[in-house]
Write a structure and sequence with these properties.
- By secondary structure, this protein is mainly beta.
- The protein has 1 helix and 12 strands, in the order βββββββαβββββ.
- It has one domain.
- The strands form 4 sheets. A 4-stranded antiparallel β-sheet has the order 5-1-8-9, with no helix packed on it. The chain has a 4-stranded antiparallel β-sheet with strand order 6-7-11-10, covered by helices on one side. It has a two-stranded antiparallel sheet with strand order 2-4.
- The N and C termini lie far apart (44 Å).
Length: 182
């Protein structure tokens, strides 16, 4: 079926990082601020020479003039993403769900979150070994829902748990340039 020859599945490499979870930051942008959102090659693309080409995006996302990624802070050990095959038998696709926790009750942060929950967005989640998982594409927006918690005086932390979700054909690793908002 694939246009390429299968290669061995190596798993974790010796002396390679394999730390779970995300880092203490994530990146976001409105899809309306993008001009071109490249995708990995299609599984049946006859120009594929390596299996990673069906999950890796090496071409840069192009932004409208004066636009780019914004950075968000996440509490340590509170960034997760999990992909689950979402389709029925004889179909394929993934649903990705994740969370990031943004601490505090800052007006600008809460306002940004409110707008993000009502926008079509792309999200980049960095890993400890400097890879970037992209949620959202030219076909599907990533979605953000929020849960604000004031917490208790004696325990807990106040802030907003952002619940992320996206539908994709599979994991998307972005290795293009990360153009930050000027």
């Amino acid at each position: 079926m694939p246009a390429f020859d299968y290669s061995n599945i190596k798993g974790k490499q010796r002396r390679a990082y394999n730390v779970g979870g995300g880092t203490q930051k994530f990146y976001f942008v409105s899809r309306t601020d993008t001009v071109v959102i490249p995708r990995p090659k299609d599984l049946l693309d006859l120009t594929i020479t390596s299996p990673k080409e069906v999950v890796e995006i090496t071409t840069d996302i192009t932004f409208a003039v004066g636009k780019g990624w914004r950075e968000g802070y996440c509490t340590r050990d509170r960034a997760t993403i999990k992909g689950t095959q979402s389709a029925e038998r004889d179909a394929s696709g993934y649903k990705f769900d994740g969370e990031v926790f943004v601490p505090g009750v800052d007006g600008d942060d809460l306002g940004n979150i409110q707008v993000l929950m009502n926008d079509d967005v792309l999200i980049l989640m960095p890993t400890v070994d400097s890879k970037y998982l992209l949620l959202g594409s030219s076909m599907f927006s990533a979605e953000i829902k929020g849960e604000f918690d004031l917490a208790k005086n004696e325990s807990g932390v106040r802030g907003t748990l952002l619940k992320l979700s996206s539908f994709e054909v599979g994991p998307q690793l972005y290795s293009g340039v990360i153009t930050m908002h000027p």
